[in-house]
Amino acid sequence: MTKILTIDCGASKCALTVWQSSCSRPPEAEAELTVPTDFADEQGLLPHLRQLCQGQDIEAAALAVAGVTNDEGRVQLTNNSCCLDLANLSLGLNTIKHWTMLNDLAAFAHALPALHSIPAGMLERLNPPAADEPGLQDVCMAAAVGTGLGVAARLGSGRVLSSEAGHCSFAPESPALLELWQNMRRFIPRPCNEDLLSGRGLVNILRAANPESPQLWQNKQPADITAIAQGKKAASAEEAAACRQVFRLFSEAAGQALSNLALCYFSSGGVYIGGGVIAKIGELFDREIFYRAFLKACPFQKQLGQMPVYLVKAENTVSLGAACFVENYLLG
After folding, report:
1. Cα–Cα nearest to 108, from 330, 249, 312
2. What pTM does this model have?
3. In this model, does residue 271 exceed pLDDT 70?
């Protein structure tokens, strides 16, 4: 048995996990620690890592970051001012022999084969199986909705392609989303996909859907909108209706944006949608609205209908994928 350390460093939180690795089954989490990403660099992260790794004989470590990676081993997070240096991390934990760094959505994509072995209920199929589905031997797309929107593709060979598709301009296709987009341009000059499909996207949608009613959206955080829509936080009938509408619009926007991206990759092997926002909003994500928007009227509507579409409800997918990457490419 080999132990692997993974560091999933996102814009709002950092998930640290020690995994037990074996050849016979996917990695299993042995110890976990989640801390806010409120540090400026790796020196603020190292005390948490030392706390988690104390007494552990760890062979390899992977840093999965919400930012553009490079061969220099230094990365600036996209939605956070934090900068991390892989060389300094390895010096701070010098008993770990092997280190690697990858984009967090690349890590998500590396987890796709293992996701089919996770506990029941953590992977939800949104459409019925079609005949002759190629599955993981063909191109798959991974999308994670969190502080931002991350997208990556996994080829049938296992190779993963990162992207910045979350920053592509959002293209509204229905009258409701066109109106939303026009209102959003009042405060965001060029709305991109993650301006709608992210934590802050919930606030942006609420604001754009109610431009003349600032009392509905001022001082509201994503957690407030979710709690009000779920009936877990007291609110007026008008506020509750407005918050519920956010998730209908969010679900439609997700269907349209991810359908476009699935066509770009021609993701016949499947579309996997996860991330912290998806895990937190639960049933507020309207599967019917999403899938109706995903099956857009276009020359490839039949092919879109044949793509397996999954909701990934597990919140540690990036960490799992980073551990799988270490197993297959660093230790294998």
Report:
1. 312
2. 0.92
3. yes
